[in-house]
Amino acid sequence: MGSASRRSSSSSRVGRARSCAWSAHPPGQPISSSNAASDWIARACPPDRRKSRGVTGCLANLRPGLPEITSPHSSVTASSMRAPSPSSFGSPVIPRQWNGRLRSSQMSEGSLKTDIDIGPTDEMSLRVSVATLVRVLLEHSRNAISMLALERRATLHDARTEEVEVKSKPFGGAIRIHDPGKLQHLIGEFRYDSKASFSEHDFRIFIRPADWERVLEFCLGHLGQPDDPVLESDPTRELTEEFADTLRLALKQNQFTLQTGRMIVEDQPSATEYIHARGYPTVRIYRIFEARIVDPALASAMIDNSERYSDRDLGELALAGSRNSGPGRANAVLTLPFKELHAAYAAIPNEARNKPISFYGHHLDETVAAILDDVTVPKYRRL
After folding, report:
1. Which residues constitute the domain of residue 117?
2. Which residues, other chains included, contact 323 with Cβ-Cβ below 8 Å and sequence gap of 6+?
3. Cα(191)–Cα(205) distance, integer angstroms
4. Is 138 part of any domain?
5. How many domains is the chain partitioned into structurally?
6. Residues with Cβ < 8 Å from 12, sequence gap 6 or more?
7. Is 289 contained in some domain?
8. Burial degree of 120 (CB within 10 A; 0-12, 13-18, 19+)
């Protein structure tokens, strides 16, 4: 592993006097949601959908004490660390160069609805998030080990206590709704979850709980189509933006290959950590992709970036930015030996994969498990 992975992350949050804790919420306690959302939970989780979890299972605990995972191997060699075959991935996708603008045909005035409201109501209380998750693989420049690259982000949650969370997750993010009129035609009114989602046309919306199955069918149909005019079906835009944030460089289409993978559905609502809608019960749809970095110079830059910054370094950068009137965030890459990480997830109980884990001291988001083949995650339905 790189030195950044070995470096102690005894603090994944940085605070006053450098005191650290994983969460602004006590470990083992759920994020609170609005009364309306809580009432909806009770209505939306009848016995046949609760399975063995009960009502509380509809609001997943997003801030548990993290199981610490260390290497199950006593030694690591290049031959033993080759990545598993990406058998679940389909035909290659030709990456499109992202120019920072939506094509006019994708966002025409005739299709864009400007009268969509923001925020939940008693009727529209179920939040739906549709996103891409990208398994970014590269070969280590020094030992040829297959590495998984994650986006590592430090976020200042509370300026008064200077409490910073450092978490790593797959590259990717919310897809955009190119033609909201098509969704309105299907289900009638829906609402964006925040001003940020409204301005970006991100698929982070509130709907009536009764409309969930129709929205799911709508998304699955459009996400499976290349260059779909209704929903964004390619992760290139998000990859380009996130590589610019983490590496300060412009990702080019000849630097990586892209393959489509499965879709994953999270049917059971759980509280979102999205900063602009925190705590609302959310169902999720993920489109999985695999990107392989084929440019050795880019791969080296990613490894160097991962090794240059510890989690503590990122926390300090986020704090420094906030003190200088910045956003209180800092980004970097985290590279981990892919086969070793895959084996570690396979070795823990299924239920533990529903939650964030700690791997070599790094806080990994629960969505990391979603991009690993042959790893069962109870809350995810793989299609």
Report:
1. 84-98+110-146+177-225+238-246+265-296+376-383
2. none
3. 5
4. yes
5. 1
6. 20, 22, 165, 166, 167, 311, 315, 358, 361, 362, 363
7. yes
8. buried
| Parallel/antiparallel/unpaired status of strands 256-271 and 281-293 | antiparallel
Structural domain contains residue 163: no
Per-residue tens of pLDDT for the chain, all 383 residues: 444 444 434 334 444 333 232 233 332 323 333 333 334 334 444 444 434 443 333 333 333 344 544 433 333 333 333 344 444 555 555 444 444 433 323 334 444 445 799 999 999 999 999 999 999 999 998 888 999 999 999 998 877 888 899 999 999 999 999 999 999 999 999 999 999 999 999 999 999 999 999 999 999 999 989 889 999 989 999 999 999 999 999 999 999 999 999 999 999 999 998 989 999 999 999 999 999 999 999 999 999 999 999 999 999 999 998 888 888 889 999 999 999 999 999 999 999 999 999 999 999 999 999 999 889 999 999 99
* Residue in this structure with the two tokens 């489509």, named with its chain if needed: 260
What contacts 168, CB < 8 A, 6 or more positions away?
150, 151, 152, 153, 334, 362, 363, 364, 365, 368
Would you say residue 197 lies in a domain?
yes
